[in-house]
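Title: [Solved] Sulfonate ABC transporter substrate-binding protein 3D structure

Original question kept below for reference.
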Amino acid sequence: MRRKNQKSLLALLLIMIVSLFAVISGCSGEEKNVKSAGESQETKDKEEKVVRIGYQKYGTLNILKKQGTLDKALKSHGYSVEWIQFPAGPQLLEGLNVGSIDIGHTGEAPPIFAQAAGTDLVYIGHEPESPLSEAILVPKDSPIRTVQDLKGKKVALNKGSNVHYLLVKALEKAGLTINDIEPKYLVPGDARAAFEQGSVDAWVIWDPFFAVAETETGARVLADGKDLVKNREFYLASRKFAENHKEVIDLLLEEINKTDQWAKSAPKEVAELLSPELGIDVASLEKAAKRRTYGVQKISEQVLNDQQVIADTFHQLKLIPEKINVKEAALEETNN
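Solution (posted by the thread starter after getting help):
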């Protein structure tokens, strides 16, 4: 009987040990799961501290990238920067639309086409008017002497870019429309090749490609933006990013302003700084830097009204399918 009781007690003790081990294992598993979830969230938070900036081959953002000043300023606030280059504004804003970048810069036309296509972007700042930084070019020995002579000719341009509006306005002044020419929609690199090979009769382009064409091919200016367009450079962001990262936007504009103040009085230094990275000769970059304007500004009611005029023009020409309200792409703190 005593031996039987000992066996029962032993069995009971074994059951208790197994149960206790199960409880301890369960708690340990929960701790591991909690720790794992915490680490995942920490990793996610770190990943979310990256600012992705889209840039083109020329502008203040290029100077910031080269100098590293914006990277340093954002690093002190816990952010890192990823720089992504695009051939032109329309492609850059497509990147913004699909979520590949958070911030970028373009001319005046790309955000209108992008907004019309449903991109949820906002204007966060702009550079002053720079009408001399874009032009309609023809080869140096071309018989074309006036914009009226473009009737029936092949004209290369990047569709939806700032020069699209320049071409529309230049043709309008000459009594023509976009339907009176044969537009060839090409990115700058392809357009340059077509221009040099004689596959197109004219090329509508912006700096620094404009300056390079003058310097290297002797291209002749048929018309620039003077008295036709304002040609502002805009800084844009996805609405979600701008609303959730105001400190980044403010810091970006602050650093742009500092760089602009230096660049406007140092065109040769700007050219020498950017030449190795862009693969463009110093003379061409200095030419472009001298005719560009500097000094970042906040978005005003007047600027949005000017953008609305461009949007309405594109709608009338059926270049965008529906009329848009540019002010829907403004942040609340827009200046009156």
